[in-house]
């Protein structure tokens, strides 16, 4: 779950991380009211869940209330990297002396969190690493032991952080780590962390990505999720308890288990096709779950064929067959379905499907023996 800048800043503020004054606006009138309150010289920040907003024209500085209103009228409703701007964060302008970077992200290779610090900021961290390798440093923080002071001193020293900023930056790093741990986040960063001309250090931007699998422990965060920023099929999948990710291909995939789903997608790619989605119905999927998964995949008008690949362990193949029959009984399915059933009750599952096909004279269900055969058939039909 990615949070908007204004949401992340609300959390950062609670942890003592200094931020600039600002408020959220949903229309030009609110922009005017907030700009007047902040003295006219403000920054208009489009609140969309994409990186590089500034380069794409989503962040603008203005020097008067009138200019803020006129610009807001143009920004509201504009498309920014495929996202419609419906909210603008209006923030006071700051006199910037220097930009820096501080962030934490998952370090899976080392089974911890990577603390990354740079004495320059305001650009992508990858760009900083290329242009200023001597001004960036990282260490791995073991979550079992937590963040140690010596690790902070190490990255501050190796990143050539000026001594006069080190005490405050160290305090902000500690607060940021607490945000990370308390909210079970996958990433949290401040880019840029700025030094103003009068010597204040302020988080000029804020990013906070929460682990979706931990949201059940954080109902307050779940309520902050912006569903307008994600594909609606993914929202429905979340409500139905399905693991679903929309992709840009034309072959729908339904499988049981993340590994099986990924393997199915790999085989489709190897055969020259492109999956339209990742859809994992999980272990022990009932007929109702299979029906919901079918309906979800059928929502995508780009899908030309659906490959249902089930290896029954906990999942029973006869339950999968009943779910498919429910779908065909309730929804008109015009596209081909490639079906592979193997494992628990596979004979019953195939018998149920074959009887249904015969009784209803259905022509668009293709039963295959192996997943390799199924992937090849799905790609052929999609073409």
UniProtKB/TrEMBL annotation:
Binding-site list for substrate: 256, 313-315
Molecular-function GO terms, alphabetical: ATP binding; magnesium ion binding; succinate-CoA ligase (ADP-forming) activity
Biological process according to GO: succinyl-CoA metabolic process; tricarboxylic acid cycle
Signal peptide coordinates: none
GO cellular component entries: succinate-CoA ligase complex
Residues at which ATP binds: 45, 52-54, 91, 94, 99
Domain spans labelled ATP-grasp: 9-238
Catalyzed reaction equations: succinate + ATP + CoA = succinyl-CoA + ADP + phosphate; GTP + succinate + CoA = succinyl-CoA + GDP + phosphate
Pathway info: Carbohydrate metabolism; tricarboxylic acid cycle; succinate from succinyl-CoA (ligase route): step 1/1
Cofactor note: Binds 1 Mg(2+) ion per subunit.
Alphabetical UniProt keywords: ATP-binding, Ligase, Magnesium, Metal-binding, Nucleotide-binding, Tricarboxylic acid cycle
Residues the entry annotates as binding Mg(2+): 191, 205
Enzyme class (EC, first level): ligase
Cofactors: Mg(2+)
Membrane-crossing segments per the record: none
EC number of this enzyme: 6.2.1.5
Pfam families tied to this protein: ATP-grasp_2, Ligase_CoA
NCBIfam families from the UniProt entry: PRK00696.1 (NF001913), sucCoAbeta (TIGR01016)
Known function: Succinyl-CoA synthetase functions in the citric acid cycle (TCA), coupling the hydrolysis of succinyl-CoA to the synthesis of either ATP or GTP and thus represents the only step of substrate-level phosphorylation in the TCA. The beta subunit provides nucleotide specificity of the enzyme and binds the substrate succinate, while the binding sites for coenzyme A and phosphate are found in the alpha subunit.
PANTHER family: SUCCINATE--COA LIGASE [GDP-FORMING] SUBUNIT BETA, MITOCHONDRIAL, SUCCINYL-COA SYNTHETASE BETA CHAIN
Quaternary organization: Heterotetramer of two alpha and two beta subunits.
Family indicated by similarity: Belongs to the succinate/malate CoA ligase beta subunit family.
Protein name from the UniProt record: Succinate--CoA ligase [ADP-forming] subunit beta
Gene designation: sucC
